[in-house]
Amino acid sequence: MAPFDVSSLLARRAAQSDEGAIVRMSQRARELRAKGQDIASLTIGEPDFDTPAFIQTAATEAMRKGLTHYSPVAGIPELRQALARKLKDENGVDYAANEIVIANGAKQAIANAVLALIEPGDEVILLSPYWVSYEITVRLAGGVPVILKAGVEENFKAPPARIAAALTDKTKLLMLNSPSNPTGAVWSRAELDALAEVVKGHPRLMVLSDEIYEYILFDGKMTSFASLPGMRERTVTVNGFSKSFAMTGWRLGYSAGPAPLAVAMARLQSGLTAGANSFVQHAALSALSAPRDDVEKMRQRYETRRDMVVKALSAIPGLKLAPIPATFYAFPNVGAFLGRKVGNHVMDSVDVLCDWLLDEHGVATVPGSAFGDPNCIRLSFATGEVELEKALARFSEGLGRLTA
Fold it and tell me: Within a 13 Å sphere around the CA of 216, how many CA atoms are in the beta-carbon half?
């Protein structure tokens, strides 16, 4: 009898749940550091700041009060009500508390929405470049990703006419991320109005609007898609506390959408993970209720870093850079450097280029192929200014060798 091999029993869906390049590059950077090498990392999209002290205190006080038991599946009423007020006051969208579902991170809120809406064979529009988890989640639900590309010359925003041309009778969902990971792009009100007209013209199209970076904004104004005329019933808005409040490890996100969809999403969450962490929800309530002084201080630091990145990258001949009005990411186009050779190294793909930059210049980045654009590299500037300056110098030096 042959030895038991559990790998032969694994479901195909497990192979679809790999964030690939981000995890690989981060792991490689850690391994090289463990060997004593000096590595400057621009890989992970995680604030380098600690969670504000008053939020930590609120969590501690909640635990001491015994708020450590199961929470309602859709979240504690106080937080859902506070989020309804926030969405009305700040985003211009009127939701009832029962239309809001608290999840274990924005990623789960996205999964809840996709699983609640998508049947096998349904088409989902992904605007490339896109966050890697979108495609993973769509495939896990049995959906068919329809990828629409927009390059650096278009500021990574597909024109509405291109989106309209991709719609079919199988299209059910469009995933919108503004402000965007990985590009930092923000859709203007005029651009969103034009997109809304496309949505109105399709009989069954919903929009998932991922707004997790709404407070990390440097230029212009961020508009919630659901606030546009006729879009509230067509939209599920996803947001969370990880990025703006530096609460990545707390794992708390939320969705807001039409009541029937909210009920379906809560039902799915009940069967998968149940409610989010009780005392974390009380800490989030404190975060919402307090002045945003800490959030603003972090935003200002990110803006300083954005300016550092733009200055450094703009000085590299051949590199193309779109404006970065928000987030803590840059997504430069390095297509001019692909195919070039240094010694025995041929940069025949952006993945090879990123590996070479790490091995030869000690700077860890993420290839844009992970986000649907094989000509770009994502740089996260959610790191201290000293580390960032070192990383940018190494990145510039590496690309400089390819232009010599």
Answer: 34
